Amino acid sequence: MTSRSLGEPSRSPFALPRGARGRMAGRFMLWANRQEEVLDLLDVPAGAEVLEVGYGPGGLIRLLTRTRARRICGVDPSAEMRDLASRPHSDAIDAGRIDLRLGTAADTGFPDAVFDRVVAVNNVAIWPDLDAGIAELHRVTRPGGRLLIACHGGTKPSFLTRSNALSEDKIDRIERALRGVFSEVSRHDLTSLTGFTAVR
């Protein structure tokens, strides 16, 4: 599978983790990806409903549980990642505060305009269709809600981050796609991520 928009290959176990290699990839992602800056930029208000696209092993889900969000949802195409991300949260899942599903950026399965915050970190490069993904995330975001898309980059990237960073023309392609649908699009260069926030 390759993103038709960004041309990034996705044959590695990090793109669609499956089996033993996929579980190992998930544990590595959990160790390597520090997302505190993402949480700060997302600025989750009390009572918010939040959707993470591509939650992987659940690192950001764990951080979101420390906020005052009312409901934390996620979609990911990997059943292995759903199982891994769900393990620490059985009580919250049973209570309905956390809802982790199989799905994609272009097909979340959620109703229109239900989320105050939507976030995708380090997976936009492997979406099969950038425009379809952004259109779907616009659809599920409430008016006045915020989308955050972030990818490898930033002001002080590690060696691993630098090797996975998108070129500026691909970053520009993401920004143009966002501006075609959302308002108030802003670029943010974090320590190891380049991101965009956009308001519906």
Automatic annotation (TrEMBL):
GO terms for MF: methyltransferase activity
Record key words, sorted: Methyltransferase, Transferase
Signal peptide: none
Classification via SUPFAM superfamilies: S-adenosyl-L-methionine-dependent methyltransferases
InterPro entries per the UniProt record, alphabetical: Methyltransf_11, Methyltransf_Superfamily, SAM-dependent_MTases_sf
GO biological process, one term: methylation
Domain Methyltransferase type: 51-149
Protein name per Swiss-Prot or TrEMBL: Class I SAM-dependent methyltransferase
